Amino acid sequence: MFFAVEAFFCSLCTAIPSYAMQHSLSEETQRRTIEAERSFIDRLWEATEQVIIGQRQMLERLLIGLLTKGHILLEGMPGLAKTLAIKTLSQAVDARFSRIQFTPDLLPADILGTMIYNPAKAEFTVRQGPIFANFVLADEINRAPAKVQSALLEAMQERQVTIGNDSFRLPEPFLVLATQNPIEQEGTYPLPEAQVDRFLLKVKIGYPSQTEERLILRRYLDGEMPEVKKVVSTETLLKARDTVKKVLLSEKIEQYILDIIFASREPARFGLAQLAPLISYGASPRATLALAQASRALAFIRGRSFVAPEDVRDVCFDALRHRIGLTYEAEAEGLIQENIIERILQTVPIP
Questions:
Q1: Which residue, among 103, 104, 176, has the nearest Cα to 134 in the 3D structure?
Q2: Within this chain, do residues 225 and 272 fall inside the same structural domain, yes or no?
Q3: Which residues are 205's β-sheet partners?
Q4: 235: which strand partners?
Q5: The pTM is what?
């Protein structure tokens, strides 16, 4: 009996280092896979930075959308290179790009396509609209009426379009990059909260630094506008999406994400009772998924095989600012969603 027990413990002792070694090898294999699959990102940075000076965070968020099948809403003052950044990124990827300039007289058929009658053949044929592209730039989306916005957002969600009696799948990858101007209200149709919630991230664009603006000034005065080369194929992007899903999201990080989300719904439970009168509604379950997906993609972009707390904190504002509603009391105090998110991040313990 004694020898049997001794043999059991001896086998257990040899098994533990073996398991640890296998676990370590699997982590190393995963790390090398991430490094190999993300190599195209460095080529993208190099290609886009030939045209775009600064705005690295904006380009990073656009890339997160590409890697997670999520759509991005960019909000910023005119002249901050929102349209140029999207166009430059699409030029660096071997994919089809289309731009839709939203206006108050736009119709859903102008985006989706329509049936055209052919007198010679005495039949109707389908003419597909500009939404049938890999990159769709919805420029100044808040200038189009609700019916047009709804048609676009339905295509974003379902990834297909119905024209006449036929349904057509949209190409992959398919990414809608919408822009809106926050300062003009006349002649605009603000997106309802339920529709804005369809966007993975809402990114606010700020002004460049003085050094960056000096470089912009010199480049444009000299007329130096290098041609952007295609450095990434759509197949590479689709393959990278599968790799992003393998980035480790530990239970501690999962709990951290859930604590942040639930703190926006039940602030008193997290020692934030003073926020309860300021929040009309908290982040939706779609926010939980968006925060987890964006954190994974950001870890992949940074070359890590696991999600760290700083990844979650870095994308938290972009993932939640359009998913938290404020009360009239908060607006009267001049508070915005970023103030609420900042208080939550300061209070929720970091794992």
A1: 176
A2: no
A3: 76
A4: none
A5: 0.83
